[in-house]
Amino acid sequence: MKKNKNIILCGYMASGKSTVGKVLADKLHLKYIDLDKEIERKIQLPIPEIFEEMGEIFFRKKESEVLKEILQEKDKVISLGGGTPVYGNNLGLIKSDRENILVYLKVNLEILTGRLWNEKNKRPLLSFLNHREDLEEYIRKHMFERNFYYLQSNLIIETNSLLPEEIADEIIKNLK
Fold first, then answer.
1. What's the CATH number where 159 sits?
2. Whether the predicted pLDDT of 51 surpasses 70
3. Residue 88 belongs to domain spanning
4. What value does the mean pLDDT take over residues 10-14?
5. How many domains is the chain built from?
6. Which residues pair with 34 in a beta bridge?
7. Residue 14, class by beta-carbon neighbours within 10 Å (0-12 exposed, 13-18 middle, 19+ buried)?
8. What distance in Å separates the CA atoms of residue 130 and residue 80, rounded to the nearest whole number?
C-alpha cells in the first residue's frame, strides 16, 4: 500500500470494524485508532455514560471534533462508530481528502441482529429494546437511513461469512 493514506472502516454497530481494524493495521504495520475509544479517552468516560450524562448531541459534536483531529495524521487504520458517517459533515470531512480510503463492512440483517441481541445492554442506543423482533426492525430502519452514507465508501466488503483475517486480506487485495 502506498504511504500517506488512512484506511477508514465504517459500517453498522457490530459489523466488525474494531476487530477487523486491529487485524488490518497489524497486517499493514500501521497505527490503529478506534474512534469511540479515542472519544472515551479524551472525555474519560465510557460511551454509555457519555450518552447518559451528556446526551447524544454532545457525543456527536465530540465525535466530529475527535475525527477531525485523527484525520490530520496519515498512515493509520481508523474504525468509526456506526453513526459517524451520518452526522454533521463527517462523511464530507473523510471524503474531502482523496488519500482517505473509506471501507464499508457490509453485514446482513440476520447476523447483525444476532450479534447485537447478545450485547444490546452494552450499547446505549439499543438498551431500551426488549424483543428480538424490535431490535431487527430498529436495525432495518437504521440501515435504510444509513445506507446512503455507507454506500459512498471507496470499497464495500460483504463480510457475512468471512473471518476478520479474511476481511483484512480482502481489503488489502483491493487496495492494490
1. 3.40.50.300
2. yes
3. 6-175
4. 95
5. 1
6. 79
7. buried
8. 27
